[in-house]
Amino acid sequence: MSAEQVAIRTSYFSIGGNAALAIIKALAGYFGNSFALIADAIESTTDVFSSTLVLLGLKYATRPADENHPYGHGRIEPLVTFVVVGFLITSATVIAYEAVQNIMMPHKSPKAWTLIVLGAIILWKELSYRIVVRKAKESGSSSLKADAWHHRSDAITS
C-alpha cells in the first residue's frame, strides 16, 4: 500500500472514530446529566469536520501534475495542517470557555457511570493518537500528524 493510501485510510479511521465518539458523548451526556460530555460531543463533531479536511487535503495532494500545477498538488498539505492547527486552538479555547461557564453555573451532578464512559473515551483518544501518529510517520504526512495531535489534545481535555 502506498504512503498516500495509508494516510487516506487513516483519515477515514479518524472520521469514523470521531463520529462514533460524538454520538456516544452526546448520549452519555444527555442521559448522565453531564454538561461536560455534551460540550465534548459538540467538540467531537468539529473533529469530524477537521479530519474530513485532512482527508480532502490528502486526496487533493495525490492528484497528478497538470497545466496549472506543474509540480503537482502536494503543497496543499501544509495549508490543511495550518487549518487543523487552527481548529485545535479554537477547540481548546471553546472548551476552556465552556469549563468556566460550567463551573459558574449551578446544576445537578452528573451520574457516576459517566466517569466510566469518560475513562473509555480518554483511552480511545490516546489509542487513536498512537495509531494516527504512527501512520503519519509511515506516510510522511504533516496533516495526519496534526490530526494525531488533535486526538492527543482531545484525550487530555476530556
CATH names the topology as Alpha-lytic protease prodomain-like
**Major beta sheet summary:** none
Number of strands: 0
SSE run: HHHHH
User: What is the distance, rounded to the nearest whole angstrom, between the alpha carbons of the first and last residues?
Assistant: 34 Å
Task: Estimate the mean pLDDT confidence.
Answer: 86
**SS-based class:** mainly alpha
User: Which word captures the global form?
Assistant: elongated
What is the count of structural domains? 1
- Determine the fraction of residues in helical runs and give it as a percent range: over 70%
Low-confidence stretches: none
Radius of gyration: 17 Å
CATH top level class name: Mainly Alpha
Number of contiguous helices:
5
Strand content: under 5%
CATH architecture: Up-down Bundle
Q: What is the name of the CATH superfamily?
A: Cation efflux protein transmembrane domain
